[in-house]
Amino acid sequence: MNVDSLVGTWRLVSFEVLDAEGRSAFPFGEDAVGFITYPTDGRMAVQFGAANRPRLTTSDWVGGPDPEIVAAARDYFAYCGTYEVHDGVVVHRVESSLMPNWIGVEQQRHVVLDGDTVTLSTPPTLVGGQQQVATLVWQRV
To answer: Is the overall model pTM greater than 0.85, yes or no?
Structure first.
């Protein structure tokens, strides 16, 4: 796979995690929504989350009730930076992220391209105290 085949905008089809025992879960629900973009300039951006997050009781993000802000952020994820493709792996070099610990870190994703669908999978990662592999399927827009 070359970098040109990944260039474009992709809509999230599914986001599923499997734990070490093979149990499946959908962290943002089976109807999660989002987009990932890979422009030709080597930059990338991704954001996704639960499809029907509850609206806040105010339009003031800073002044909103903390429990509502926490719930809204927990059901959403986003980061951006640069990317490179090497031997079936895309490397995201994170420059900005909802998760501050990811800033300055490389995130590797195994890539499988099938027509206008791309599947990105994480290496086993500790989440909630358990090793999990996340698999995100994207459809070209």
So the answer is: yes
